[in-house]
Amino acid sequence: TISDYNQSINSALAALGKSTQVDRIYIFETHVHPVVHAPAMSQRWEWVDDGVIPEINNPDLQNLLYRDFFPRWYDELSAGRPVVGLVKDFPASERTILEPQGILSIQVVPILIRQHWWGFVGFDQCQHPHEWTTTEISSLWAIAGSIGGAFARHQAEEELQTLNQQLENRIQARTEELQLAKE
Prior knowledge:
alpha+beta; 24% strand
């Protein structure tokens, strides 16, 4: 079910957050904005460490247009490159969103599903500025790969359920047609 799926993702993020010792880990989906029909991002899942304010219910992180605040992110992530660094060094448009969340250091990498850019997963440090190591960046790439694989499996399962339901409906309709023809 959807709640089991969401709970699984939340549990995985909690385990990852604790094991990587980051302050926040989250997943954003890239999609078409429902009104202006331009690329946007929306936060879907989040885990935060003790003492860090959750942002999962922040309306500013839903349907956020890349072109207005994060055009660099759109270019980098859609090309399969990470965004990594100290927030103080980021462009002003990015800092207007990131600094109110208390983010000092950030790294995000794209999530791919069947070779298509779906969104991104990210790590934040909010307590102390942090220069991300190659190992930490590689770890997030591995996490993104696992998430993409899990999402692809979930999509395939949903598609299979839909196809099975359609097939059952056709069989039922055909069975009813045959029964009527016999009468």
